[in-house]
């Protein structure tokens, strides 16, 4: 059997692509009640909690044993090795759990930090799947994954920085500055962390800048694009349409998915995200 590929539930893969790899879910805690992301807790659950009575929403990484059970099962089923690629270690302890679990299996399991999340994680995971399906060995699949990470760029807009501040994903000074000036933040994932890229005055301007940044990141290459949202489907469709027009024939595959509970808990309702993946 080829190399097996494992990722986590923050990849937010389109439903037709998810079966190609094994997904280990994060845990989401809504009002003190735990559930597995995408299994027991949906994006709608998180959105309702954050917009209604402001019920506390938290996230927790998978336990190392969850990964160990997954790796053991795949290897027992005949996989020649496992590449396990996950959301940034700067945003979650998920990679640490995977590394702890991998120690049991020696060089048969390789853990990779995608330095991103959403389809910033999903595109490298799919690159790993394609390499494995083509007969590549463990080292070659790892190389294909890391190479894809370097060709993937993530930009996003949120209505407020408050949720990112509460979750510790952005520093308090940046959040306070944005709130005080009533600006709308455009953020990007840089070196595995979330950073403010620009500040604009209106939501419409923020979404327009997302398109500009995505087109600039594409350069002159063929690209795949993913658009994520939380409780903002109209924003997502508008972004996807604008990107199709601006990128023209350079746009290959385009995906629109709702961000799951783990990322939504920190970004908040209204999230709009664009991930650009340059094809090799």
TrEMBL record:
The keyword Translocase does not apply. It holds the Pfam family DegV. The keyword Lipid biosynthesis does not apply. One of its GO terms (molecular function) is lipid binding. InterPro entries: DegV, DegV_C, DegV_domain_contain. Keywords: Lipid-binding. This is DegV family protein with EDD domain. It comes from Micromonospora pisi.
């Amino acid at each position: 059997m080829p190399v097996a590929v494992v990722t986590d539930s923050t990849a937010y893969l389109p439903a037709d692509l998810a079966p190609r790899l094994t997904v280990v879910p994060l845990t989401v805690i809504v009002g003190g009640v735990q559930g597995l992301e995408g299994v027991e807790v949906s994006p709608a659950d998180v959105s309702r909690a954050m917009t209604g009575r402001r019920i506390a929403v938290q996230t927790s990484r998978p336990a190392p044993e969850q990964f160990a059970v997954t790796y053991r099962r795949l290897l027992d089923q005949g996989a020649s090795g496992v590449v396990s690629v996950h959301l940034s270690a700067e945003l979650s302890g998920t990679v640490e759990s995977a590394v702890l679990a991998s120690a049991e299996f020696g060089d048969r399991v390789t853990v990779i930090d995608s330095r991103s999340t959403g389809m910033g994680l999903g595109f490298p995971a799919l690159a790993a799947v394609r390499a494995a399906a083509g007969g590549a060995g463990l080292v070659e699949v790892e190389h294909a994954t890391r190479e894809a990470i370097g060709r993937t760029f993530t930009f996003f807009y949120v209505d407020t920085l408050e949720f990112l501040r509460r979750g510790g994903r952005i520093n308090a000074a940046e959040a306070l500055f944005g709130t005080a000036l009533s600006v709308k933040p455009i953020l990007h994932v840089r070196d595995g962390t979330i950073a403010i890229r620009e500040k604009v005055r209106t939501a419409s301007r923020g979404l327009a800048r997302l398109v500009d940044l995505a087109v600039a990141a594409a350069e002159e290459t063929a690209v795949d694009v993913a658009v994520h949202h939380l409780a903002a489907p109209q924003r997502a469709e508008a972004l996807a349409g604008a990107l199709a027009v601006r990128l023209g024939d350079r746009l290959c595959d385009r995906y629109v998915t709702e961000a799951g509970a783990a990322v939504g808990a920190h970004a908040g309702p209204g999230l709009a995200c664009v991930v650009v993946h340059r094809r090799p």
